[in-house]
Amino acid sequence: MNSIYWVIFMGLLLNIPSLVPVMFLHKTQKNVKISIAIRLFLLNAFLVLSLVTLSQNITQEYGLFPIWLVSAALVLFAVTLVPTVKFVRKYLTIGKSRALILSSFLIVYAVRFHGVFSDLNGSGYMLNGYNATWTLFFLFASLLAYIGCSGSKTYSGYSASSSAPQSDYFKPNKEYETQSQIDYDIAVKGKSVLSDPNLSIVEQQRYRDALEKKEKEDW
How many other CB atoms are there within 10 angstroms of residue 182's CB atom? Predict the structure, then answer.
């Protein structure tokens, strides 16, 4: 039992280098970087667990894992991948999100390359059903992350500062509307035009002046 805990502990330690890409997020806030690092660490842990159990059960190279463990590993990976991708996309662009997650995956693969591809004697490398299946499902997981980063969720890192002036700029206003159009609005709506909550102060003043002028002419 102690050997199992030791293997799990060493496996988690091997995932630490996969967090190196987070260190290159210079313009990201510290608390966001910490949250991304934690999510990536868990994601990579479940990725390795899924690859090991699935590959071993398919090839039966080194024995079998319980079906519930394989299923749990796949579910945990999928459940962790979706919110991780959404969280990263919230603060990074599509390109940076893909670069971050895929580079983290590649580090996981590189760190375990020797253990997966080395022969039984450890003197060289060999290609067999186990490491081929391991690599195949690793590429599939990377493809899922790549596709997930291109979803409809848009980068919102600076949306708070840029959305306000855009909304005012594209807001339809009549500060520079022709006088004939203002006269038409008054003829159709009368004084009720002043109750429009979307009117600015300048717009309201133009309508008041036009109403007063119209009242004088009618008088």
Answer: 18
pTM above 0.85, yes or no: no
User: Among candidates 12, 198, 132, 195, which has minimal Cα distance to 211?
Assistant: 195
Task: Yes or no: say if 51 and 137 are a contact pair by the CB < 8 Å rule.
Answer: yes
Higher per-residue confidence, 151 vs 182: 182
| Contact indicator for 47, 73 with CB cutoff of 8 Å | no
CB 108 within 8 A of CB 116: no
